[in-house]
Amino acid sequence: MTETFDDIRAAVRAVCVPFGSAYWQQLDRERGYPEAFVKALTDAGFLAALIPQDYGGSGLGVAAACAILEEIQHSGGNGAVCHAQMYVMGTLLRHGSEDQKQAYLPQIAAGTLRLQAFAVTEPTSGTDTSRIRTVASRDGEDWVINGQKVWTSRAEHSDLMLLLARTAARQDGAKPHEGLSVFLIDMRAAVGRGLSIRPIPAMINHHACEVFFEDLRVPAASLIGEAGRGFRYILDGMNAERILIAAECIGDARWFIDKAAAYAGERRVFDRPIGQNQGIQFPIARAFAATEAAALMVEKAARLFDAGKPCGPEANLAKLLAADASWQAADMCLQTHGGFGFAVEYDVERKFRETRLYQVAPISTNLILAYIAEHVLGLPRSY
């Protein structure tokens, strides 16, 4: 029997109650960061869900974390303001040294440190991670980092950053992804000393930034695991990332469905509720069906991940199906509301913009299709 985490879900909903549409709409207008919301989640222990109990966390699995993020989205909130603290955690937990874990995990669990920034994407590499140009060179007891990252969300609101950089040239390895390494950067010490951050104005309030490294010196102890094996380390976290963000999409979809169904039952045109018309009913029902089917794949992927079993296909399918379901539900919800769907007060347009992101990030749906074609169906590689 699949665990439904009813107690966790109820507790998350209780935390979200004071943070309604007006709160998120104001932040959206002002491009603000939800400090009060993140503090409330932290104080309730939800952002330490995946940290083992020995380090002050809850020691829960990805399935429980999915329930947390889904309920945030279902409440009308935006878990993207802090979700990286969950999926970045795997790299530190699996590949970090005991000294690194002892130094950072208890403080992250207590909320005195934030690990919210994950710096991988670059302006010239896009999804081809093997072609990143940010370089880390060993110099005595330090690493010296030079380069640039883009779409590094929450960099202005994080104390720590997980960074992927080249420590060996691409052509020197047997495979293109060899020679990449992962560093845990303490941004409190780095900003103004070789690290600079520039926000990127965007369609959604996702706190995206460009990050620039100019002769940034970090101690040798900043390296996670072995030099040159960083791509494998972040791959471990990518399945968790896909599953967790798929859960957010399910939460979004359920918010849109609830919103549309309520409006369709209340809105009267030609002396009858518009929800009495099959032209309104059927799109809502189809969105519901797509969402419930996608949720089953998210559950399956999370179960496999928590059992330590291979789950690449399932994690990718969960992300694909859930992102499609949330976008279908968003379009349906806006259409159901008609002109009022564009009115800020109904909050549909904000969530509509936010959920559109998941067709593109953290991985494009087209790349997921290419993965399925090659690695599941055995078709020739297309790129």
Which structural class do the helices and strands define? alpha+beta
Element order: H for helix, E for strand = HHHHHHHEEEEEHEEEHEEHHHH
Integer average pLDDT: 95
Task: Give the name of the CATH superfamily of the largest domain.
Answer: Butyryl-CoA Dehydrogenase, subunit A, domain 3
CATH architecture annotation name of the largest domain: Up-down Bundle
Q: Tally of extended strands?
A: 10
The radius of gyration computed from the alpha-carbon positions, rounded to a whole number of angstroms, is 21 Å
Biggest sheet details: 4 strands, mixed
The number of helical runs is 13
**Broad shape:** globular
CATH topology of the largest domain: Butyryl-CoA Dehydrogenase, subunit A, domain 3
**CATH C-level label of the largest domain:** Mainly Alpha
Roughly what percent helix? 40-55%
Distance between the termini: 40 Å
Number of domains: 3
Walk me through what this model shows.
This protein has 383 residues and is α+β, with helices and mostly antiparallel strands. The protein has three domains: 6-110, Acyl-CoA dehydrogenase/oxidase, N-terminal domain (Butyryl-Coa Dehydrogenase, subunit A, domain 1, Orthogonal Bundle); 115-230, Butyryl-CoA Dehydrogenase, subunit A, domain 2; 232-376, Butyryl-CoA Dehydrogenase, subunit A, domain 3 (Up-down Bundle). Helices cover 48% and strands 14% of the residues. The longest helix has 37 residues, at 230-266. The radius of gyration is 21 Å and the shape is globular. 45% of the residues are buried.
